[in-house]
Amino acid sequence: MTNVPELFGTLVFNDKVMKERLPKETYTALKQTVESGASLDPALANTIAAVMKDWAIEHGATHYTHWFQPMTGITAEKHDSFISPNGDGTVIMNFSGKELIHGEPDASSFPSGGLRSTFEARGYTAWDPSSYAFIKDSALCIPTAFISYSGQVLDKKTPLLRSMRAISKQAVRVLHALGETAVSRVNATVGAEQEYFLIDKSLWKKRKDLIFTGRTLFGARPPKGQELEDHYFGNIRPRVIAFMDDLDRELWKLGVLAKTRHNEVAPAQHELAPIFAEVNVATDHNQLTMEVMKKIADRHDLVCLLHEKPFAGVNGSGKHNNWSISADTGSNLLDPGKTPETNTRFLLFLTAILKAVDEHQDLLRLSVASAGNDHRLGANEAPPAIISVFLGDELTGILESMQSGKTYAGKKSSKMQVAESIPAFMSDTTDRNRTSPFAFTGNKFEFRSLGSTFNIACPNVMLNTAVADVLAEFADRLTAAADPAKEALKIVTETYAAHKRIVFNGNNYSDEWVKEAEKRGLLNLKTTPEALPYYSRPENLAMFARHGVYTGEEIKAREEILLENYCKVINIEALTMIDMAGKQIIPACIRYMASLASAAAAKQALGFDAPTEKDLLQRIDEYTRAAHAALARLSDGTVQVKGIEGNAKQAAAYHDVVFAAMRELRAACDVLETLVPEDVWPMPTYAELLFSV
Ligand code: ADP
Ligand code: MG
Description:
The protein is α+β, with helices and mostly antiparallel strands. It is 48% helix and 14% strand. The strands form four sheets. Strands 11, 12, 13, 14, 15, 16, 17, 20 and 21 form a nine-stranded mixed sheet that branches. Strands 1, 2, 3, 4, 7, 8, 9 and 10 form an eight-stranded mixed sheet that branches. A two-stranded antiparallel sheet has the order 5-6. Helix 6 (157-177) packs parallel to helix 14 (457-480), helix 9 (238-253) crosses helix 10 (279-299) and helix 19 (552-605) packs antiparallel against helix 20. The longest helix is centred in the last third of the chain and has 54 residues, at 552-605. The chain is globular, with a radius of gyration of 28 Å. The model has no long low-confidence stretch (mean pLDDT 94).
């Protein structure tokens, strides 16, 4: 039995610990600093550091590290022990305020997109006191931002914090203009649902593709996939439940609000959802969740696959970014209340979001672009590459009637009584739409296009900034208006009329929608190389600059880093395929053909015919030749694209040339897998990988 409340947060230097252990004035000053977003008085840092160190040592820590989120997408840490020599051969444990608030890791080996030249290798990390320090692997981890020597952002955290400030500032202006002057801060909140696969470690070890790329690059469809729909919410097998129990416990210790766990659609696929938190904390916690998932899986002789598309033919994994904004007075600004048609504040924020999404479709799209996620977006399992908003019938009906000047006479929630013994409940006024990339789900928006490996910071930077930008414009109008309440309604009606093309309540997977979206002039950026160059569209550059989120240089750097990353990922996948096809698959087929040939010859020597052997031999020969030829094209392709100048051009070529050749090679090899015996095939099959845990 676990006492969860007692276990929860035991490895976190949280508010409760600070209140108990810090001198009262220090605690109050720190709280004020966090709440106002001002920088910390260095005099306080020494006191906090000393208290933190004692607490950490009591909890088994020997080291500390600044914990940051460089552009690799994963977290980075460099441990320093607390030891300090006494001069007599002994040590004491030391941790100064300076060490707490400021670090200088060598930045030269992190992607910088040209922001940092090697002669300025220094980067700075700076404590983010708005996210609690915690203990992991005997190290006190201090969440930090990471910037270059000259102050440019090198990480995912800094722009997120800046975007949070931007949306808070503009939302507060709007609320003040509407008379809600008690509000002093507005927080973006996020709950990130995380999908993942679990497979057996011993099988994983036998697949170079899983080891090097996180996904299978070959694999014929197993006899059974997800067609019986028997895995989603199915009962959870013992080995998986043992993993989940362990995972929840570790996450709870780290203060992560792990809440929901269940089987997902594909065999071997599962999901974890936390209770939402402020977006910077939600980001840190999602990074921790992914890391802990991998670690705990290993402990159970499993491997947790976070790749967006580990297996062809069954669903891939995504991450649902549930996003809302709430005032520090406690109210969720996206809560429609019982009568949304009279809730001006709600309608104002809602239409601000519609406009933001419509005007910056490209940013939302590119914030979810990656080589891995290209396998999902646009396929019939994940939202399409076209960004649109699902509002549902009720909200759409309200906005439509406002636009046409009528009063709303729509559907109301009704009482549902399904059987006498079952308590009655009120039906929702809108159904769910599981095909929409950006769906209103009652009191929040669910951005469903994120890939499972993603750091959620970037999509939220886009959302926060784009919405802040519209709110700024709304606030200007409201403050200038003689009658702000009346002006608000006018803004709602006008904004909806101007941006209703972004609203789509139908089936996003249908071909009709692709055509309809084109007619509406919505973007359809199908691949990562197509999407990323939109980062530096002049309107986007201007918007980020207006809100102090990114400079033009910083955006250009990000664009370059992401394009480069795409090229690198495809290149690694191509080289892995070349290796597996050339050293494992084709040789295995040749060996098997030899044994077929000798079997046929032996039979013929005895006067038998050998039609089966010959037929098999012929078919295997045909596909082996096809594989061999595709392998050669792929090898040539990887060499050819290497020399292309410019990341955008090179990324496009990696897609058009290398990725296309990878597909051909896979197609031939997947047929070969179905033609040769199990004991000849040189790696575990989909059936084994997906159904053995
Ligand atoms: P689903 O059916 O998609 O699982 P849930 O209602 O369970 O929907 O919520 C999914 C996620 O949304 C959870 O992580 C939850 O904490 C989060 N969520 C709920 N309210 C908010 C909010 N106001 N802001 C951000 N996230 C929220
Ligand atoms: Mg969901």
